[in-house]
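User: Hi! I'm a student and our assignment asks us to look at how structure tokens line up with a sequence. Could you show me two examples?

Assistant: Happy to help. In each example below, the sequence comes first and the structure tokens follow. Example one:
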Amino acid sequence: MSPGFHRPDPTPSGAGPARAGEPPPLAAAGVTQRFGRLVALEDVSLELPAGCVTCLLGDNGAGKSTLIRILSGVHLPTAGTVRVDGRAVRLRSPRDARRCGIATVYQDLALAPLLSVWRNFVLGAEPTLGSGPFRRLDVEGARARAGRELADMGIDLADVSQPVGRLSGGQRQAIAIARAVHLGARVLILDEPAAALGMRQAAYVLDTITRSARRGAAVLLVTHNPLHAWPVGDAFIILRHGRVAGRWEKDEVTAEMLSRLMVGAQA
């Protein structure tokens, strides 16, 4: 486990993994993606259970980015099926994905660095006061909500009125993840969230990821680094040359084994 990282308290009542027999919030079955003669993905299947962190690992060129784009509505697969709550869907755009409760947090975060933390946190879902032409932003309510929700996710900030651009990379990543949960995401797809961070900042982000799952979200952590995946993962999927090379539960592998499996060596 990464230094400074700890798993949060047990899941509060009403959150956590789905009950046995319930379909996962998001799944893919036999997904294939071709770009002309190039086969980027071939027959990829996976399930993302609620309340769990599923880690998708692969080296550069393994097909991770293509799979992210399919699950987030950027690409329609050439073949195969994407299912939300067991129902086949065609995600034709990121907006379609968001309507299904799927949020993707990329490395560029989509945060506005000059806006305050609380403005970023409620952006797109701002609380208001009054009605009609007298409707206005509930500044105090929004500020209090942001501080409360971030604290509940273990993100302690001295001042939520400071610009996001003043925060560390780890804090910005954590805010982007917490915002997606706050806005109703049931599925979180995280694209290399700790790739450019130092050890302490990475641990901060990994803690936020675990808290998100314990609140009931289905999390797909996409990374090429087993040392980022291992502390938080409940299940691990290796993607190699566009195909699933295997799936393992946490008690079946170690971080060292995952490193070997990624390059095709025997565990």
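Example two works the same way, sequence first and then tokens:
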Amino acid sequence: MVASRAAAQSGSGKAYFDSGVRHYNLGHFQEAITDFESAYNIDPAPILLFNIAQSHRQLGDKERALFFYRRYLEQAPNAANRAEVEQRMKDLTQSLQQEKDLKQQPPAGVEAREPPVTQPPSATPPPSASAPAAGSVTKVQEPVAPGAPAPRWQLDVSMGPGFVSFSGLDLEETPVTVAFRAGGSYAFLSGPSSLRVGAEARGVYLPYTKDSNPPVRGTTSSLWGLMLTARYTFLVTPDLALGAGAGLGVIWWAGLHQGNPFTVNEIAADSPIPMPSVEVGLRAEYALGPRMFLALSPELLLSKTTSDNLSNSVSSVRSLDIYAGAGYRF
């Protein structure tokens, strides 16, 4: 049983669930039922019975909806949304009784009271795990096995072009570099809205021409460091999330040899120079499945120089980096 539940989290059971959610959101309720039933055959999580009941209710099949609501409460007697489900069952039972009474009305010409008008079922998706507030719209609940919560950790790596500029230093052209980044984060808020806090290591290669006789082209310095980050994203489609983020940390400028064009009198730096840094950027993530995703992030990094030999020549460094990469959630 434990193995089959784990499979539903990362294999075909999760895929059937995701497909069922998409069909439900598109109003393809019969297809959603088929997908939720397939997911239940792999991982019999009680919440899937609730999703099946919701789909039958949307189709107007009140008897089947009642059947699966009952099975749901039998399998999850302590469900957080038990009161809501019991109310839906009560409403469906009353509606079925009214339909039955309507069929048993006297023939035409015999006075009869018109049955009360019943409200059509509201187009609400299956609910989340927690009990919703009164009057709130319920959402689809992912089948999560005991001891196997929804993925919250995320790792991603990316690279792309970087465009570096300097305050106080006039170069003939803006260097175009290659930027690298690798990071991890944890979701404190997950769902349609996601708030992730984490850390990332990043680096930018910064080539320059060394002032010597003759000049040496292709000499390379680097900007590398560690940033603490926070990002907010929101699902605009089941697979696409858009958002923005910011970071704070330290970037070191290494490789400033004698004859570099950045320091005063082009003297060498004894060691990498630390620079307090801040970054802001946009974020787009496209899901390839339950775990894998692609990401695109244009970001602006601003670093303040600290060494006198550097600060008197370059007061700050700006780098506009356009990252493209991939990641994994667990």
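Here is something you could point out in your write-up. The beta strands are 153-167, 176-189, 193-210, 216-235, 240-254, 273-287, 292-304, 316-329.
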